Amino acid sequence: MFKNFLEFTRKSYENFSFRDQKWSLISGGIIVALCVSVMVLLETLNRYKQSFRQENLWSSWVIKKVNIDEFDDCFKPEHNGPSKNTEISFIGSFGTRGSTSDFETWILCTIAKSAQNIFEFGTFTGKTTYLLAKNSPNTAKIVTLTLSPDEITTYTKSNDDHQKDTKAALEESIFKKFYYSNTPLEHKVEQRFIDSKKFDERPYLKKFDLIFIDGSHAESYVENDSKKALQMVKPGGVILWHDYRGPDRAPGVYNTLNKLSKTMNLVHIAGTSLVAYRAPK
Questions:
Q1: Burial code of 111-148, b = ≥16 C-beta within 10 A, e = fewer?
Q2: Tell me: the pLDDT tens digits for 177-190?
Q3: CATH for 60-278 (3.40.50.150, 3.40.50.12780, 3.30.43.10, 3.40.50.920)
Q4: Fewer CB within 10 Å, N or C, the chain?
């Protein structure tokens, strides 16, 4: 049966004219090219789909998203736009590695305007520290914590931490002088060089009006920093986490905050990577 089929195919092919054979080959080539193009297109679309999911465009994340004026009344717009009470001293994010966005900076610094005591996990370049000092009351104090480049060997990675989160944390622990250094605002800043897992929060219980968590994004560190921040925040005070960007771009932040949201009223500020929490009064 199979031999008969082959013989039929051979005779049919021999009966083709040269022109028929030529067009048959061209048609086959076109079909193959189209198949390859479709496969490449589908793969490209899949990559874009994965990217969009990281940006929360195609699927909802765990933490509820709200506009900033739903979290804090001070951001409620007036007839002509934002209240002048939200005006801040500002330096843009252009050219700054790992910085908060301009919108995130506006939110953070507006809240800082009424904060007497501020704590920051993760100094990095000190630009955010500088802006917190610049926009907070003259009598305000900012405590900021980072790992000294001389102490990076003390960094304690846990088994569940993603390697890229650990790598990023160590790459950012390279500064001894900061954006606020040698400025008139330096007196407002207390710089702590210590691994946040070894930081003792007990002297700071219920002290801070605003806590900003933007240190190591490794899951064990986000858990550690969050636990300590919840002990340190004042009743009615605010905790802000940076880089809630999805399971691929910042998995340690994403996973930890999703877990916390099961027992705490966390909100994701629309248009930002900030997650916010206000401690009960």
A1: bbbebebbbbbbbbbbbbbbbbbbbbeeebbbbbbbbb
A2: 888 999 999 999 99
A3: 3.40.50.150
A4: N
